[in-house]
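Q: Hi! First time asking for a complex rather than a single chain. Here are the components, and I think there are two in total. Is that enough to go on?
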Amino acid sequence: MQELIKRAKELLADGTAARVLGWRRGDLPYNPEPAFFEKEEDFDQFVYDGFCGANLSKMMIEACKLEGKTAVCLKPCDTYSFNQLLKEHRVDREKAYIIGVGCRGKLDIEKIRAQGVKGIQGVSGAEIDGPDELQVQTIYGDKTVPYASAMLGRCHVCKGKEHMICDEIIGESRETQDADRFDEVRAIEAMSPEERFAYFKKELSKCIRCNACRNACPACSCRKCVFDSNKFDSAQKANVDSFEEKMFHVIRAFHVAGRCTDCGECSRVCPQGIPLHLFNRKFIKDIDELYGEFQAGKDPEAKSPLTDYRFEDAEPGIVGKRG
Amino acid sequence: MYKIAKKDLQALFRAIAAERELYLPVRTAGQVNFAAWDEDADVALDVLKTVKSPKDAFFPQFETLYTCRREGKKLQIQPEALKEKEFVVFGMRACDVQGVKVLDKVFLSDPVDSYYAARREHGILVAIACHEPEESCFCKVFGVDAAAPDADVAGWMLNETGELALRPLTEKGERLIASVKSLLVEAEDAQAAVEKEQEQIRAIVEKLPYAHLSLEGWDGGATEARFNSPVWETLYKPCLACGTCTFVCPTCQCYDIKDYQTADGVQRYRCWDSCMYSDFTLMAAGNNRTTQLQRFRQRFMHKLVYFPANNDGMYSCVGCGRCVEKCPSSLNIVKVIKAFEKQGGGENV
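A: Yes, that's all I need. Here is the structure of the assembled complex.
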C-alpha cells in the first residue's frame, strides 16, 4: 500500500493527474469508502486492503467530466467494467490514468459475521500482501477466519489476475478462483420450472427496491433510468411482490445482457443478500453457448454478440427448442 | 416477572398466533426480517439487527389506501379498512422501540394518520434486551438503554438457564401476558438473573466503538452552521444515491402516494420514498433538491437538526447501526457526525 501511496503522490506532484480516486480509511476496521485525493496530506487517510471491494469504474463517468486527469485505482476485475464503459463512450480514456492495483480477493464482512463473529474491534491480515488468515479482535474474544472463507462470492470465480486496461500496475495479484463460474447457473438450470420459480420468488421477495444493485452497476449508466422516469408508469418505488418478481430485476438483466462483465457489484451491494448476479451469469452462459465465448470488457474493440449480426447466428426458434 | 424455557417458545408463539397476528424475526433465504409467524417459520430471536427494522408493522413499505372502480357510468370508491385486530410484534430491540416513538411524533401529531394510528392502537410491542451488542450499535448516544427496552413487554434472554424472562410494562402488555399465562412461570426470583444480564449488557455497551460519540453541535439550532458547511462536498461523493439507508432505517418516514391503474379503475397506494431519489418531492415547478449533495445533506440535517428543532430536541436517529452495516459505499450517520468535529462538532475519535 505504501508503494501505491508514494506513486499516487508522484502522479499528483508531476501533474499527470489532478486527483486520485481510491479508498479512504473507515472508522471501523472494515468500512473504507471510495474517495478522491487531491492533496498530499489527504493520503494519511488512504487505504487499500481486502475490504476495498467497491468497483470504482463507474465513478469515472463523473470524474471524466472534471478538469484534468483522474488517476483511478482499478483491480483486475474492475478493468473489464472500465473497458466496457469506454466502449459505450461513457468514460474518456484521455481523462483517466489507470493504476492497476493488485488483488488477492476482496472480503465480505457478512461472510465473517456468518461465522459467528460479532463485536468486531479490529481485523488484521486484510492487507494486500497479508497472510492466509484474518485475525479478528472482538469484544467477545479473538477469532481466526481463513481469508478465502471471507471472500466475496465473485472472487471464488475470479476472471484472473490480469488487468485488461491500465497505465501501470502496482502490487501483485493472486489467483483466487476455486469454483467454476457457471456451477451456480447449472444448479439452477437443473431445477424444474416450478422449483426455479419458487427459488427466485423466495429470493426476489426480499427485494426492498433500494436500487443499490442498479446504482452500483457499471452497465447501468443511463442518464435517466426508465424506473425513475415520471413520464411512464414504469417509475416504481413500491416493493410489490408481483412487480419485483416479474419486472424490475428481469428487465435490468435483459438490459445489461451482453454488456455485463460479471463484476459482481449487484450481489455485493444488495442489503438483502439476493444473488442477483445469477440472472446476468445465466445470460452470459447462454451467449457463450449460442454465439461463442464472449467476455464483455475484455477487448473494447470486439463486437458484442448481441449487437453484431452474422449469418450463422442462432435462429429465434432456438428459444422454443432449448427454453 | 415471568419466564419461559427457550425450548417452549414455539408453544408460546403458537398460543399468541392463535388469537392475534404475530410478527417476529424470521430467516428467509438467508436474511432475517420481521415476518408473520407460522409453524414452519425459522425464527431468529438471537439476531440483533433484522435487515429492515420492524417499522413495517406500523408503517408498511407498501399499502393500498383506497381503490376506485368504474362500472359503466358509476364510480365506486372503496377505502382500505383500518387495522381492527390486535397484533404482536415480538423480538424488537430497544432501539426499534425508540424508532416507533419517533414515528409517533410524525404520524400521531395533527393531522393524525389514521392508518398508522389504527396499527399503533392494536399493536403490542415485545422487545428483548440486546444480549450481545455489536460494534455498529450506538443507541446509548440517543439515550436508549439496550438493557431495558421500553416496550409493552420487556424481555431478557437468560442464557445460563436457557430461559426468556418477560415483564409486562403496560396495560397492553399485561393483557398479552395474561392471555398466555398457562405457558409462563411466575418467577420473581428471575429478577437477580435479569439484573446480572443488564449489568453485562451495559458493560459491553461502554466498550463499543461508537458508544461515546459526541452530538455536540448537532441540535435544532444548528441549521445555519451545518447547512452551508463545505464538509458535505467531500462527504457525499461516494453516495450511490440508492435507498438502502432510508429503507433499513427505523425512523425514516417519508412516503410517496401514487395511483396504480387496474383494469377497471385505480388503486391508490402509498410506499416508502427516499430523500436519496432524484424524484423525491419533485414538484411541477422543478425540484428543490437537484444534486446528490443536496439530497445527502437533507437526510442527515433532517435526522440531526430539523427533527429535533420540531420535536422538543428528539433526534430522529436511534443508533441502531443498520445504515452502518448496510450502506454499499460504507457511508453512514456516524461518519457524518464525526466529519463535523472540526466545524464546531464534539470531539470524536
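A: Chain B has two domains: 2-207, 223-343. Let me know if you'd like any chain examined more closely.
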